[in-house]
Amino acid sequence: MSSTAALKGLRVLDLTRLLPGPAATLRLAEMGADVLKIEAPGAGDASRVMMQSSADRVAGRPGAFYRQLNRGKRETRLDLKSEGGRTVLMALAREADVLIESFRPGVMDRLGLGYDVLRVINPKLVYCAISGYGAQGPYSQLAGHDLNYIGYAGVLDQLAARDDTPILPNFQIADLLGGALSAVNQILAALWAVARGGDGQFVDVSMAHCTYAHNVVAQVALANDGTAPIAGGSLLNGGVPCYNLYRTLDERWLAVGALELKFWETLCMALDRPDWATRHWSLGQAIAGPDAAQLIKDMAELIATRPLAEWVELLVPLDCCVSPVLTAAEAAGHPLFNAAAREALIAQQTSDEDANRLTGGE
Known about the structure:
This protein has helices spanning 20-30, 54-59, 64-70, 83-95, 107-110, 115-121, 146-152, 173-195, 207-213, 216-225, 261-270, 290-303, 308-315, 328-332, 339-358; strands at 11-14, 34-39, 74-77, 98-101, 126-131, 202-206, 243-247, 253-257, 322-324. By secondary structure, it is α/β, with parallel strands linked by helices. Helix 1 (20-30) links the parallel strand 1 and strand 2.
């Protein structure tokens, strides 16, 4: 993400730990906010040692997990269980625009630092509480993590192999989408209300509820016929050949996202199979029907005849929504995300264009 100064001057107190809250305040910091991360004395945020490398451990520094999530923030330590710590936080809150915490609901109230107390000393304060199941309700006091929240929200059931076995994702959907992104969205909305003369407000972010709200495709299926899509049985989870994953000759994977007919037609021509172009869901092909299943099989056999790099070289320039499935290391070095690689690609493209002009396009 690129940094901006849109939130320059915004003062944020960050009492969160681990992933969702720190990711939210990181995004605010990237937009120019002054974020003060407040940790407890002693060990502090548990993410300091979570996934810590041996080199970081020997050097006595926080691991990459902590460093990535908390870059661009100021840091301090406060013991909120002490009178002195609470007094300092009250003074900070009096001058702050936003306070974000991720304790279990009720903890801040028991410390005498809940929203009802802080709003008295700062009526414009936007107070955001991120929790697993929300500040109220029968599940509010339950502990949980990303896996639990996506399980409740009906998302984990959608992340399944063709034999219906759920897949354990290494991307924290509820933490990042349900927690961090939802918190940023709701905080910015509350700040807009404050900017127009309104008072601050309590922003209650339930990671489970926000994740459930984003489970759109499954909810569409329920609205249509009362049943959620099964693996390989719907438009976007493997039921059509034009939107699927195919194994290549070198045991890699190619992502084909030619959902619209124009992209599918371009792809079929590139594959030298123009006869496939009319076999598309928008032209009446039954999703997960016999023809779709047969064409998925035929596509798989064709894609398996070449290594990934050859398919990328052939198909990506055609702009038909085909891409490689990259490893995390490959993504880190890709021009999309790596500035040095991007500059090298631009320089190569410029050189090719210059050479093409000199030769008259031959």
